[in-house]
Design a protein that fits this description.
alpha+beta; seven-stranded mixed beta sheet; globular; about 35% helix; Aminopeptidase; 4 helices; about 170 residues
Length: about 170
Amino acid sequence: MTLELRTDARADYATGVVQLHKEYYVDQWCFGDAFVERIIEHVASFIDRFDAGKDLMLTAHQGDALVGSLIMDVSGDPSKGAYLRWFIVSERVRGAGLGAHMMQFAMDWCAQKNYDYRTLSTYGGLKAARSLYDRHGFKLVSETRTDPWNAGVGEQILEWRGHPKDSDAA
């Protein structure tokens, strides 16, 4: 079955984004219900204020199933620049290059929009994701041992700074 990328922000996609995060972070990392509630709240807020001229909601679909998401949130907190959020790929398609493809799509989109400051937050221990961020030029700027989910992970803040004409290629 083929994969399809979509860039439309639809409220019904929010459920799939939340489910992917639940399956990974709750089921595999034991983050708990508070994490799911936070994701629901924040994704719903993004959908409500989505600005097609500023923001990107990139979703990957396999048939009727949402199997990946990556959001570039620019309309939320301007101090974060183009803020990469809710980037995840379903376990059933993980390892096939979808995450790298989605990341490159988002970086190219940012370059087209002249977003020369990009940030993201992630958790320590997510080696595959961190490797992907590093390959796309993100640099670690801070790391805390704060663990709001009691899962043994700290938060990492990464940023990408460059001129829009700079290549984002890995």
